[in-house]
Amino acid sequence: MSAEFQLLLQVTLRFEMTHLPIQGLFAAVATPVRDDGGFDAAAFDRLVDMLVEAGVDGICIGGATGEYPHFESAARVSVIERAAERLPPNKILLVGIGAASLRKTLEVGKAALGVGSRALLLPMPMFYRYQQDDLRAYAATVSQELAAPCLLYDLPDFTNGIAPETALALMRDEEFIIGIKDSSGRETNLARFAAAREGLDWTLLVGDDRLLALGLQARWDGGISGLAGCCPELLVAIIRSARGGNHSETSRLLLLLDALIAQIGGLPTPWGIRVALEGRGLATGTLPLPLSPSRRAQIEQVRTWFRNWHREQFGAASARG
């Protein structure tokens, strides 16, 4: 079977699954690179296979964890097509379409739709600061141009932040804006958005791993998790125990999550995730900036800690590569 036919089959099956609700745990996937900075498709395949085997409900590519500002549109399209080909059709594919211009955002969005992405994650413009009315006009225009399900992606650490009232207005008024991935870390948004959704068919996904369990308690639909991109076993277990009402197990798992965040949180996003992946035998290539001696030492410490910690907590699941 040719690669082209396989991709066509995957796309066809994925389009047939578009009625599935967007709920559960979605791992945000790192983008492996070769020594020359190009996309490493073979390493990406191994990473996707590991995530699927761990039990995630789907994957999200092209977000902050995927380091989307580093890649030209052609490279991003290659990642999108590879993800659609590799991901089993019963798993949901979500694609982030943030870019440095409206034209490139639409370009990436159309490519994602062409291979059956269930929804598009739409972050706000980066670098320059804009008013909320500007962001509302931007999100409305992109969603209308693409005429496909879009999730707002509130990522204020790296892009213009979306005020809660702006997000709610867009979800209420725009036909193709179906929900939000909220990475703002605002705990107050959990109850506010859940209350505003009453009677409406919105998708609410937590983007800050520290709030995942609280989001599930507030009746959110799940989460898109950067940490699931390196330790899916832990995040899958958290979401299952929280949904099952096993409060003692959820508390135990959240302590493990706190320990993981404390270790890798001192590295730039998403270096910690990529270093952890290397610790479990899934290298993603050279980091994007030169490393100082102190940073090298920190990375080695985190890599070693994660390897030992993951083996202790999850045993054979960490024996890869």
Question: How would you describe this protein?
Answer:
There is one protein chain. Strands 1-2-3-4-5-6-7-8 form an eight-stranded parallel β-barrel, surrounded by seven helices. The longest helix has 22 residues, at 293-314. 49% of the residues lie in helices and 12% in strands. The protein has twelve helices and eight strands. It is globular, with a radius of gyration of 19 Å. The chain has a single domain (3-246), classed as TIM Barrel. The protein is an alpha/beta fold. The protein has helices at residues 3-16, 41-54, 73-86, 102-114, 132-146, 164-173, 188-196, 212-217, 232-243, 247-264, 271-279, 293-314, and strands spanning 24-28, 58-61, 92-96, 119-123, 150-154, 177-182, 203-206, 222-225. The two termini are 27 Å apart.
Considering the chains and any ligands shown, give keywords for the structure.
TIM Barrel, alpha/beta
Rg over alpha carbons: 19 Å
Total individual domains = 1
Oligomer: single chain
Going by helix content, strand content and strand pairing, the class is alpha/beta
CATH architecture: Alpha-Beta Barrel
The general outline is: globular
Task: Indicate the mean pLDDT.
Answer: 93
Strands in their spatial order, largest beta sheet: 1-2-3-4-5-6-7-8
CATH class: Alpha Beta
Count of helix runs: 12
Please report the distance between the alpha carbons of the first and last residues.
Answer: 27 Å
In percent, how helical is the residue content? 40-55%
* CATH level-four homologous superfamily name: Aldolase class I
- Biggest sheet layout: 8 strands, parallel, barrel
Ranges where pLDDT stays below 50 over 5 or more residues in a row are none
Q: Could you give the count of β-strands?
A: 8
